[in-house]
Amino acid sequence: MIKKYTSGNPICTEAFIEKYDSLNISEFPLVNRVENNKFVFEFDMQDNDIVYGLGEAPRGINKRGWVYESFCSDDPFHTETKSSLYAAHNFLMLYGSKTFGLFVDFPARVRWDIGYTSTNKTVITIDGTDFDIYVIDGSKPIEIVKEFRSAIGKSYIPPFWAFGFQQSRWSYPDKQAVDKVIDGYNKANIPLDCVYLDIDYMERYKDFTVDEQKFPNFADYVKEKKEQGIHLIPIIDAGVKKEENYEVYEEGIENDYFCKNGDGSVFEGGVWPGIVGFPDFLRKDVREWFGSKYKILTDAGIDGFWNDMNEPAIFYSTKGLNAAIEKASSLKGKNLDLSQFFNLKDTFLGLSNSPADYSSIYHTVDGKQVCHDRVHNIYGANMTKAAGEYFEKEFGNGKILMFSRASYVGAHRSSGIWFGDNHSWWSHILLNLKMLPSANMCGFLYCGADLGGFNENATRDLVLRFLALGVFTPLMRNHSALGTRDQECYNFENSKDFKDILEVRYRLIPYLYDTFCKASENNDMIFRPLSFDYPDDKIARECETQLMLGDECMICPVYEQNVSGRYVYLPEDMTFVKLSGENVVTEKMTKGTHYIEVSLNEVPLFIKNGKQIPLCKPAMRTGLLDRENLEYIY
Amino acid sequence: MIKKYTSGNPICTEAFIEKYDSLNISEFPLVNRVENNKFVFEFDMQDNDIVYGLGEAPRGINKRGWVYESFCSDDPFHTETKSSLYAAHNFLMLYGSKTFGLFVDFPARVRWDIGYTSTNKTVITIDGTDFDIYVIDGSKPIEIVKEFRSAIGKSYIPPFWAFGFQQSRWSYPDKQAVDKVIDGYNKANIPLDCVYLDIDYMERYKDFTVDEQKFPNFADYVKEKKEQGIHLIPIIDAGVKKEENYEVYEEGIENDYFCKNGDGSVFEGGVWPGIVGFPDFLRKDVREWFGSKYKILTDAGIDGFWNDMNEPAIFYSTKGLNAAIEKASSLKGKNLDLSQFFNLKDTFLGLSNSPADYSSIYHTVDGKQVCHDRVHNIYGANMTKAAGEYFEKEFGNGKILMFSRASYVGAHRSSGIWFGDNHSWWSHILLNLKMLPSANMCGFLYCGADLGGFNENATRDLVLRFLALGVFTPLMRNHSALGTRDQECYNFENSKDFKDILEVRYRLIPYLYDTFCKASENNDMIFRPLSFDYPDDKIARECETQLMLGDECMICPVYEQNVSGRYVYLPEDMTFVKLSGENVVTEKMTKGTHYIEVSLNEVPLFIKNGKQIPLCKPAMRTGLLDRENLEYIY
Fold first, then answer.
1. pLDDT 10s digits, A103-132
2. Does B593 touch chain A (CB under 8 A)?
3. Can you give the pTM of this predicted structure?
4. Contacts of A62 in chain B (CB under 8 A)
5. C-alpha angle A351-A55-A527 in degrees, rounded to nearest 5
6. What average pLDDT score do residues B219-241 get?
7. Helix crossing, A318-330 with A338-349: angle to 10°?
8. ipTM rounded to 2 decimals
9. Which residues of A touch B427 (CB under 8 A)?
10. Which A residues 21-40 touch B at CB under 8 Å?
11. pLDDT tens by residue, B414-435
């Protein structure tokens, strides 16, 4: 049962597709108040209650004991004490002494103090008084999730080949680099379906251009790769380069498509291309225009994209940078004291994604000027909608791979997400795992983290262990940053271990794809916390290093360095399976605590009694998989 | 058996107190070469070999699978991909197919590639050709450690009261703040022995001054606190403020005690006091001078210090800052492209601890000018030696509490260390645990991390779990940064839980102090990896979440949020003990894997069969402990 409470005049986010009658906020059942023009509400928790939700967010599956903020943030340091990542997924669920779900439909900041200030109290602060809150009643978490998911609409399903293994890097700047990657995988006999084009494929970072020097005859090249079974996936950034004779920019200026300053001039921010205009994706005409630009690349044979920098990330604004330089100049020849020094340093540090810049940007919503602060969290989702609406119209559903960095609930209908610029940290294996069920709750099924870690240098064993989790994530992509160690599987010693892991992925694809489609169809989760299935088992309730997958399995990656295995908790008798290349080793294990040994080239998995999962033969491309002849393990 | 190999003319670090005849480096038994004036040597590892060592360093007890650098660094982000922390502890030990120890006695950079580039190879690069390497033969890790420790001299023993609980914060700036802390602890009936004075107690951050406004009649105040059983522990920074009529600075100038630029002028860096001179602690006369200044505070009754910022940390140099401002000014009115923007931003970001600044500093060693780069890693250790030599002369051994942020082997004879500016991260509980045996190997017995975490906001449960590990660390100090949430125990809800944890500490102090003194006397470790005691037990060999403590116990803190316990591995039958306030619950447990429940107010501990440990009654101060009437648990 979903009830909708409305306060003031909310901006429509299109998160929900089902319509509910609005109840007046005065009837809202939780303790609440308005403070400084913010709506604050709260509920109590008992010691053993669990709080789920918030989708792509820092920390655990159980969100208790921290304060989070819904504010799409380009912040690559995903440490424990961060409050925001790239997404704003405003779904929360209390489970225990009371059980209910909440969705705060509000496109600006929302603060979630979940037992941080006071251990047994959740206090939610909405940064305004124009919003909808949906309250979802139910007795079981999975029922609440399904009801919520049903109301927000079915999740995006990507093409089948998007379940293949994907290799990315910032950057493979030209065709030689791309060919080298494909060649490396082919020679190592490691399966591969996609290679990514990060920003350098473009001409001076201009959206919807391809650098002719680097990729001569691009359409032919795309076709040639597709004949080899490889999809090229170019990046599209939110900002459009300010450059004379650049058609997209000039059209944007002509038609007044860009976000404004308060005085009506175009807001200018610095991102990869240098100065850009930010399309005002909140306008339908702008979305139609921007969406239609993807045609330039789909006409060249491209059938997959990733939308980036759409929080939006802003390295600096022209006005911010000028002010900083002005401040530095004024200090020339003076003896700075320490506070002046820190103030100056912080001025330069604070140029990126600055609150002052965000506050100075204006959108047009329903014909009215609206400050960016009020709609920040739906900017990226609307960029994705621009593409999604175009793809659906032009190609129908599920033909184009599309995922985004920034997102809001609703975007799950037309796109997946990746979890942004993580690090080559062992702790990020578990962070990846923990985000999976949370993202599923909010409708994002096609998702995954940068396997091996994006920032900083990875070690061989880290990449192998990360991939062994990635075997199960719908988006299975290895991605790494400029200046870091080469992270392609074939670049490490003894690439046979990587082949063993990736062949397991391809063997599982029929099962994973089927599980995915069913979850989308039934508004179900692919990944569930153990507590959903074993609510009365105390150890299972608290377990955040294992996940239930579909109806059949439990996954439990190894997530530490220099170990030959890990502890695992079985809430019931199960079959322990180790998969490696075409090898399958099974062992019946009993309910309880075990230490399992797992080699670097093995993928561990538990199958529930009475269940079985299908495996096909491995192949070098998803298109070569024989999906008819399946072997069943149990 | 220790052999010393000498190359060139090493700078004497005084790490060793035993003298060995030098063998020529040509006889050095490991594969080696000189490349670009660096000495590079290597050894192979088998899959199951373990590499121990490096003392205070990032990552695991087993150092395999990463590249480390000995370079004392003021870097507060102790993430997994860092290579250096504040110390340079050049002891390494291979254990497995071959077993030996190494100490690289060299005061500049040393790079340790321990299976990072190539999984089964360690490659060590010494940034020069003037060094000693000691090779320690032996068959058991503990024997190698003891032989090494014997050669470097007995570890510092602090006063007994330094085992009491210590509360710190940046900052308790005045006597009112200090009194509030003591009052808070007293009212909550939580034991306490020390309160720390961070930089704000000084007059404009000038070493060896006390701000009269904040602490009128300081000596009387120190005396009053001591009568309450509370020791005040002031900080001393490496840099001496440049200020007219400030005696310490003027003496330094008069006597030419400060580090120089290449042209012989005094090097000026910006730190907390603004512009400072850095005493050239490598000179004996400078150490004697600086050490004698501590008398100003010991005369006021102070009997404990912490030496900080002695890597040395340099926020900026006058010349670096001027160049950055100059660069910014030159860009005024110009349209910057992205690379110019990043270059400018990075210029300001790079002002702190800049390699260019370090390279421009000169010391006087044996009458010769020596570039700081060549002696960087012994600067802080020599600052501590300055204090230690004074204290020993004036008060004898073990009377003054002294610990340092930067260190080098050798400093362990006159001081402890703390592990620097960590974070309020759950992962830092384990990082703390993992550093303990590594630090012990290198002679540092009196050590500990900032409990609850220094940077960013802590949660109540994190502080409790952190403290439950800290119960066992010789230095048990809660410390937190300016601008973070109040972290004193009495400031959290239900302070009774904190009382329960801290009373356990006080009950254990007789045992912990005795274990400490024996370890110092016998050149032994207090904390050992399980692998030292159970070398043939595979799970124990790899375990890095539990430690052996003394001859009697195994410790196993809970290190995750929102859990009621943890997995534990018992390499043999043991007694599981839960301590909470005066409560003791024991349970016999069998060898193997278990899940143990531990409440937030409990300290878990395992006692080996046939062993027992003494407990005294809790008290509010160490001085009130009845060390004669002991209860034994087993």
1. 999 999 999 999 999 999 999 999 999 999
2. yes
3. 0.98
4. 561-562
5. 140
6. 98
7. 160
8. 0.97
9. 80, 427
10. none
11. 999 999 999 999 999 999 999 9
Whether A423 sits inside 8 A of B80 (CB atoms) is yes
Q: Residue A96 and residue A139: Cα distance in Å, rounded?
A: 9
Nearest-CA neighbor of A478 among A150, A17, A165? Answer: A165
B498: helix, coil or strand?
Answer: helix
Q: Does B332 touch chain A (CB under 8 A)?
A: yes
pLDDT class for B398, splitting at 50, 70, 90? confident
Rounded Cα distance, A218 and B585, in Å: 72
- Cα A615 from Cα A607, distance rounded (Å): 13
Q: Among residues of chain B, what percentage have pLDDT more than 90?
A: 98
Cα–Cα dist A365/B481, whole Å: 43
The answer to whether the CB atoms of B345 and A345 lie below 8 A apart is no
CA of residue A569 relative to chain centroid, distance: 28
Q: Is the pLDDT of residue B174 over 90?
A: yes
B80 and A426: CB-CB below 8 Å? Answer: yes
Check CB contact under 8 Å for A544 and B560. Answer: yes
Contact A362, A372 (CB under 8 A): yes
> B567 and A562: CB-CB below 8 Å?
no
Q: Are strands A401-404 and A304-308 parallel, antiparallel or unpaired?
A: parallel
A298 close to A305: Cβ distance less than 8 angstroms: no
Q: Which of B78, B81, B430, B491 to mutate to test the interface with A (most CBs of A within 10 A)?
A: B81
Chain A contact set for B81 (CB, 8 A): 423-425, 455-457
Please say if the pLDDT value at position B336 is more than 90: no
Cβ within 8 Å of residue B350, ≥6 positions away: none
* Rounded distance between C-alpha atoms, residue B444 and residue B596, angstroms: 31
- What distance in Å separates the CA atoms of residue B385 and residue B365, rounded to the nearest whole number? 16
- Which residues from B are below 8 Å from A329, CB to CB? 325, 328-329, 332
Chain A residues touching B119 at Cβ < 8 A: 460-461, 493
Q: How far is CA A104 from the centre of its chain?
A: 20
